[in-house]
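Chapter summary example.
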Amino acid sequence: MESIDLLVLRSARDWLQAGHRVLLATVAHTWGSSPRPVGSMMALRADGRVVGSVSGGCIEDDLIHRYTSAYGGPGLPDSPPQQVRYGVSADEAHRFGLPCGGTLALVLEFSPCVEALRQLLAQLDDGHLVRRQVDLHSGAATLLPTTQAEQFHCDEQAMTNTLGPGYRLLLIGAGALAEYLATMALFNGFRVAVCDPRPEYIAGWSVTGVECLVGMPDDVVRDFAADLRTCIVAVSHDPKLDDLALLEALQGPAFYIGAIGSRRNSQQRRARLIEHFGQSQASLARLRGPIGIYIGSKTPAEIAVSVMAEILAAKNNVDLPGAVSVTKAKQALDLAQPAA
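The structure predicted for these 340 residues follows.
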């Protein structure tokens, strides 16, 4: 399942290439509570077809009524971008299904340049981060390569949105936990690959839409060419597979690198990497373990929920409170146990 941003942009490009008129709407500002964050996009075709979302649905319905022929409306205008605001009053917020006090502003691009969208998607598909800047007076879009995921910005002159390739997950080990984790990652828009040199494990893999990679995990990690939107998770429980793969992963810029295991196993892993592979506490600072957030998980499915939640928090730049850390939560439980 492709990320929603790429799906919106790809749909807009395909519709334009097919001769349709298209509206590309982007959430430019929010005040108070809002259903979707700034930078969220939707593509609206002149006949009322929609991909993506800027709200819980009511604003999409209003845009369809205003700008398409689905309900006998005038269709999309031939004009420069416009900025519109929803939810200024309590009555309007209620009518458009916004949370109490919520207000949002949209930038509406009417039939954006199809060639610029082609170039943008080509760069994203090649794994590059791209800063897309739209002149709000002319509608012209400028594409600039970048190495940092800068914050979305919009003023009266221009809208700037940094877009990146789809998020990827590489799993080391093809057991039951990996299957649950792969399924959740696919539903969250990640492209997923699994590596396991053990034939009996990879032969039993049952999750469709996942790329199965053959080879030793450290070689696979190197060839995978991790970028800033990659996470690498070792779940084989076999140090011969996990350790070298994790060392290779730490050489790259992946936003999340972790390995399954208990507190004791995680401590032993760090000790091995320091003693036998010349690592230090500083060089292992990005290595997560035990991975996941503490929800008392026991089954592979529950553990996958825990790990996926931590991956999504890292993806969204959310600093989780210490209380949800597996290590700190279990330390607190140990202290709470009565002395024998």
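To summarize the output: The chain has two domains: 4-163, 168-332.
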